[in-house]
């Protein structure tokens, strides 16, 4: 079969024909697209495209020859990277577009069909993804099968897509919809032929315990772990995986901060395994979410039972499907608080680099044999007001997400403050505009929130922003940076690794920032907005009562100072000693 220059197909063509061009691309005539009409379907290595064919018998246009099929100038295509599944769906009706006929006589006709499942971006909000399906039909089953095989072979070359995932579902997350949310998105995974091992959690710490005890061999059979829940649940999963596997240098001890930053590079790496910490009896960790949990503390490399395991490996992914109360991590990474959007991101193998904060509660004294207690946080770590809000809000979990409003107001009215010393490294780009907190807070504008930047100077961090998309991996050059210090009484101290944007704080922009709210800095609005946005992520910090503890932002995948922020400074690292 041949086409002429205008793309016209001869009427004498074999109605069931398909042919291959010089590049191996298939073209099929007499393929029908449901609710559209006849199309010519073709593909190259990136896209599946079709052109509409309209029978001139039904057209007013007399300029073409009778019996010839006109190829419209409208062309539609879908990228293979946006196709998440293709299925043969057997014999059934295919419909003409409104007011048109198939084969010149009927508004629908029966034929074999195959469905191409694609992701479309919402017209109103491009972050919002919608699953959509194009149903194609042909009288010849073999042609349908050939197309399914051809499209599937392209999808298989998308190597970054997961094939097998471990899914943890928190049934009581947020408004208690965790299980329903998973059931709503699970068909997307089965359509995309992604195998899932689903575990519905029965208690706090369940997911963490499973991940801490699973062998590395078993873990390697999965391409990733998905949390169906809120930010706190995601952090629990992150900790379950990383605490026993991630080999990261310790942050500097409090004493090290007096020295130049080079000392940070000399710290030795460690490995870790799960043990009951010596400190358990001393009641150090009073995390309300993990009351019965065991501490997980670093151990010497020799204590590892299994061979050294490099984690995370290149392809392993953490996924999150929002079901929680705030879902700041999802909003920051996909731009939408939508379980379907998240599920589609996961099945298509989309990725975004995420920095992780390493939170270390240091040993009590330099001579102590007790190793530091580690936690990891993906979005925010807070102390003072934030910790109090999360502790208080746990008593009112039955209220659902509203508990944060109630607990936040209650804690705010208590107006507690904490004496602390915060040491931090200021990112290069901040140096020129940085003002010492000591100078600014205690000087002329005592009521001013220090570090507040002009709106015009701020670069917003939103989903797919250029800084987050930058895939440069590696630690920044910290040579020559000096620790700065701020000491005094604080209402709250927070450190953010992502912007923590959420529905209550849609303009929050806290990436790599610290925020110190002084007792005499009356910043009601800021305190509230920050704390509510990130409250679910603070479980690892509830034990900040007692011994000194240290918090450092450390890179697992990428550490990049980025984005201006409203409330604080951008920092490479920080540690804090509390005096309680
Ligand atoms: N089956 C369960 N029952 C009770 N608690 C659970 C269960 N499964 C997990 N958890 C704990 O609940 C905590 C909070 O979960 P999650 O973050 O999903 O909910 P949320 O607090 O409503 O949401 P957000 O964190 O977005 O505010 C987790 O840290 C986890 O330890």
Describe the protein.
The chain is of the alpha+beta class and 580 residues long. Among the domains are: 18-156, Pleckstrin-homology domain (PH domain)/Phosphotyrosine-binding domain (PTB) (PH-domain like), CATH 2.30.29.30; 377-579, Sandwich (Tumour Suppressor Smad4), CATH 2.60.200. 21% of the residues lie in helices and 29% in strands. It is built from 13 helices and 22 strands. Strands 1, 2, 3, 4, 5, 6, 7 and 8 form an eight-stranded antiparallel β-sheet that branches. Strands 17, 18, 19, 20 and 22 form a five-stranded antiparallel β-sheet that branches. The radius of gyration is 29 Å and the shape is elongated. The N and C termini lie far apart (84 Å). The model is unreliable at 1-17, 55-73, 257-309, 429-456, 471-475 and 517-580 (pLDDT under 50). Bound molecules: adenosine-5'-triphosphate (ATP).
Give the key terms.
disordered N terminus; Lipid_Phosphate_FormReg; alpha+beta; binds adenosine-5'-triphosphate; 580 residues; disordered C terminus; elongated; DAGKc domain-containing protein; five-stranded antiparallel beta sheet; PH-domain like; single chain; eight-stranded antiparallel beta sheet; ATP-NAD_kinase_N; Tumour Suppressor Smad4
């Amino acid at each position: 079969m041949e086409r002429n220059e205008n793309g016209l197909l001869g009427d004498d063509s074999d109605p069931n024909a398909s042919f291959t061009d010089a590049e191996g691309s298939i073209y099929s005539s007499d393929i029908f697209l449901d609710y559209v009409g006849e199309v010519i379907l073709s593909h190259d290595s990136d896209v599946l495209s079709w052109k509409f064919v309209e029978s001139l018998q039904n057209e007013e246009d007399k300029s073409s020859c009778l019996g010839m099929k006109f190829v419209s100038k409208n062309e539609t295509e879908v990228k293979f990277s946006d196709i998440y599944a293709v299925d043969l769906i057997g014999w059934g009706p295919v419909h003409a577009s409104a007011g048109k006929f198939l084969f010149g006589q009927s508004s629908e006709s029966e034929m074999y069909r195959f469905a191409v499942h694609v992701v479309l971006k919402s017209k109103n909000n491009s972050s919002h993804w919608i699953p959509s399906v194009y149903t194609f039909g042909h009288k010849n089953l073999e042609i349908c099968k050939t197309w399914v095989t051809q499209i599937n072979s392209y999808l298989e070359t998308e190597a970054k897509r997961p094939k097998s995932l471990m899914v943890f579902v928190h049934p009581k997350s947020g408004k208690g919809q965790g299980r329903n949310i998973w059931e709503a998105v699970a068909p997307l995974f089965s359509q995309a032929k992604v195998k899932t091992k689903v575990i519905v959690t029965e208690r706090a710490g369940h997911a963490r315990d499973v991940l801490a005890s699973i062998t590395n061999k078993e873990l390697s059979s999965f391409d990733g772990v998905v949390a169906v829940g809120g930010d706190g649940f995601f952090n629990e999963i992150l900790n379950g995986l990383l605490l026993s596997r991630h080999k990261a240098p310790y942050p500097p001890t409090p004493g090290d901060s007096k020295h130049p930053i080079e000392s940070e590079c000399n710290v030795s790496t460690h490995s870790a395994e799960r043990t009951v910490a010596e400190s358990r009896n001393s009641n150090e960790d009073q995390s309300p979410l993990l009351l019965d949990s065991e501490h997980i503390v670093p151990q010497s490399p020799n204590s590892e039972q299994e061979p050294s395991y490099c984690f995370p490996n290149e392809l392993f992914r953490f996924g999150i499907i929002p079901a929680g109360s705030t879902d700041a991590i999802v909003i920051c990474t996909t731009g939408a608080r939508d379980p379907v959007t998240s599920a589609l991101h996961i099945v298509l193998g989309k990725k975004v680099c995420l920095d992780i904060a390493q939170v270390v509660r240091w040993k009590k004294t330099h001579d102590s044999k007790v190793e530091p207690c580690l936690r990891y946080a993906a979005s925010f770590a807070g102390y003072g007001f934030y910790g109090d809000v999360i502790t208080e809000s746990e008593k009112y979990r039955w209220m659902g997400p509203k508990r944060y409003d109630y607990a936040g107001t209650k804690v705010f009215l208590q107006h507690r403050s904490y004496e602390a010393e915060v040491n931090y490294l200021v990112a290069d780009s901040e140096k020129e505009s940085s003002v010492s907190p000591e100078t600014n807070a205690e000087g002329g504008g005592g009521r001013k929130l220090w570090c507040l930047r002009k709106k015009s100077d701020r670069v917003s961090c939103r989903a797919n922003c250029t800084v987050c998309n930058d895939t440069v991996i590696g630690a920044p050059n910290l040579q020559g940076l000096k620790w700065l210090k701020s000491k005094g009484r604080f209402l709250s101290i927070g450190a953010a690794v992502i912007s923590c944007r959420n529905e209550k704080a849609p303009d929050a922009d806290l990436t790599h920032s610290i925020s110190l709210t002084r007792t005499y800095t009356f910043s009601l609005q800021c305190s509230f907005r920050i704390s509510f946005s990130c409250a679910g992520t603070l479980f690892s910090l509830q034990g900040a009562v007692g011994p000194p503890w240290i918090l450092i932002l450390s890179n697992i995948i990428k550490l990049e100072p980025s984005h201006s922020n409203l409330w604080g400074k951008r920092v490479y690292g920080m540690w804090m000693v509390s005096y309680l």
